[in-house]
Amino acid sequence: MYVYILTNPTQTVLYIGVTNDLTRRLYEHSSGRGDTGKFTGRYQTDLLVYFEICPNATQAIAREKQLKGWTRQKKDALIAAFNPTWQAIDLETWAG
């Protein structure tokens, strides 16, 4: 299970989610770009800037809720520690 954070090109919006297949979920987000009925489409949040692996769904959901409760400043610091340049992560080439 994965907890992940997406942002938009101007890094003004963050989206936090959970999935068991990060590659598939990123594709779903990017194919919904511009769909105003969905948060990620409306705000164009399809750039992966952070992710972590959790051992099971229960822990992933708990971590997602924890991150959603954090201030923007704390979320920004977490992303910067993991991905200092906030470059969009390509899972095929990410060296971590």
From TrEMBL:
Pfam families: GIY-YIG
Coiled coil spans: none
Domain of life: Bacteria
The organism of origin for this protein: Hymenobacter aerilatus
Family: Belongs to the UPF0213 family.
Protein name (database record): GIY-YIG nuclease family protein
All copies of domain GIY-YIG, residue ranges: 1-77
